[in-house]
Fold these 3 entries.
Entry 1:
Amino acid sequence: MRLVPWLLAPWLLSGCLMADPTPRNPAPAGGSVSSSSETIPASASSVAGFGAALNRMRAQAGLEGLREDGHLKRAAQAFAEDMAANGYHSHHGRDGSTVVERARRAGCGGRGYVAENIAWGQDSVQDTFAGWSASAGHRANMLGRNYGVYGLGQAGGMWVLVVADGC
């Protein structure tokens, strides 16, 4: 029965969505980043530790850091709470909303570069960061060149990261 978590891992970490008007290259040409070197200190608060690790990963890829944005944090937190309270795991809200619509409802205008990572079942921010870092699609969102801000939300084992060009 130890194989069950490994069989479920792709589903649990499958929540990756980009809403981007133009394609982009997530990392500099010739650059590579090792996710195994990224850790979040257990003593760090969830958001501060996550943001620091995210920005270290981006710096290693030659990218500018992201700053936490209150609009995206509220959008991510509200979506995590809704998924946890209503027992679903999807990039579409119960009302059919997309990450772009939820970010705009939370007050984020931006130019339209928005992406979302979702996860379910991780026990800590460290586990969530490690899972997203190890997944090509989630990692591409975290290393997107067009992004400048992020918001992280967590509720009842649901994790939501929203990144955008600005708000």
Entry 2:
Amino acid sequence: MDAPASTSSGSSSRKPSVVVTIGMAGAGKSTFVQRINSYLRQNHEKAPYILNLDPAVAHVPFEPNIDIRDTVDYKEIMKQYNLGPNGGILTALNLFTTKFDQVLDLMEKRAPEVDHIILDTPGQIEIFTWSASGAIITDAVASSFPTVVAYIVDTPRTTAPATFMSNMLYACGILYKTKLPFILVFNKTDVESHDFALEWMRDFEAFQAALASHSGSRDAEGEPTYMNSLMNSMSLVLDEFYKHLKAVGVSSLTGDGIKEFFDAVEESRDGYEKEYLPELARARAAREQSLQESKEDSMNRFMKDFSLDQAKNTHATDDKWESEEENEDDDDVDVNLIDRSDAEPWPGQYIDVTRMRRSDEQAQWPRPT
């Protein structure tokens, strides 16, 4: 089998790895998910657990275990809330997020049966990466399972230096926003090899040379344009970013590079356990400490205000409950209670004639005149 040995049968306590696929529209995310789904089914003992989070997709080339379209109706949301396509997708994702605790319960229930959980996100990358619902889903999953972000890049469209730089800046932003292990996946390598991208990432001078040779890099006077100077500067800034980044080239059509991708997932899993989990524990401890300090501060301010109020209002000390000795006189007051249940009837007493008979001596039956 071609699957990594570490993903084969092992300890039952080992949690499955979560792969969150993110990428620009048309980068091939759904096709990539279909390819890794096929690869795992062919080369692995356990099938993956797949979640589709795109409510607007008409068809997916795989069978998801959990589909957002079963929970929310994207078109109906657009009609009810008078929204456009992007607003409908965002609102559908927000509504689905309100039930994501149930999704986590299902994932926890299926965890012993799977080794990989795959999330296919909406095509509109900004809806998932920069929305509150996307952050909630990512943080919730990452706090429960080892999670890796796979950023899918459309390799043929990245041959232009400006497009390449745009993708790298977006990847950098997602990396520092999620703080999760990150893998750059150059897709469609059957059309265009990703070697040029790896060279640009390793050698910023090669990128600057490609940028200088690209049309439109100089103005009419032969001077570098503003965009040219900006991208030159950004290539120097991102040089440190590239050093700590894993990059693989895959073809979702032919399946080339899928094994290398899962090797990178296993390496990233180690990074998750060594870096992300300790950071998550520190963040939780800091939050609990902050909450405790806030409670103590509130209590101290309350006691301070109470002391000041007592000092200003000297009559406040006179307002107190009476002692039991002072209330003893009230306890000796004679109260005459009358229980008329067994007493003789008195004039005007109500008598329910519907419950009496002629033989009753107390009844005063009227006589005809």
Entry 3:
Amino acid sequence: MSANVTPTPRTPGPVTPLTSSSPRRKPSVSRFRDLQTAPVLRKASMAPQSATSSSKASSAFTPVGGEESRRPSAWGPRPSIMGVLGANRFLRKVRASLKEKESTLGEPQAPQQLLEPTYRLEPKVPFKPSQVLEMLKETLNEQLEGRTYRPKLATTLCRLLTDEIRNKVKKMGFDRHRVVVTVLLCEIKDQGIVASSRCSWDDKRDSFATHTFQNKSLFCTVTVFGVYKE
């Protein structure tokens, strides 16, 4: 059993118009032109910035004259010449010390000899100022006779005199004495000078000798201290 049902058409209701407080503005021709030309202006303004940035980047990494050595290295700046020379000098010293150790390893070493205390408070060969004074006179007359004062050579000359006098005093064989040598070398220009020294002193065992040499250009004062070492 079937029944035919016919739908009834619906009638549309009343349409309420939309109301707004401000009426819609129509797009003006000038605003439309501004929107069309805005991308072009942006591209034009961005072009010189990109060109300058690329030129700066290329100038920062492009070597002058086309040399590859001036490019920045990933390992840092190159070492200086003084640094390379110092490293080579250090390596030579290390190699020399290693060779000396290798040469002494094969040689038999003498056993260390232990000495008993002597409890001796007096030197067997005491310091003799008269003998040292004669040596000072001979050495200064031999080295400084006829010399003129030169400021650039004064330091070297003082060092040479100090080494020579100290070695000669050591060869005299003073027992248990520490030898201290001071050399004062100055130019003569009508000036006055006073030289003095101060130290801990033992009148019975310590002594000294001093001598001054003088010519027309310079004068030299040498003092040798013999300090007894127990």
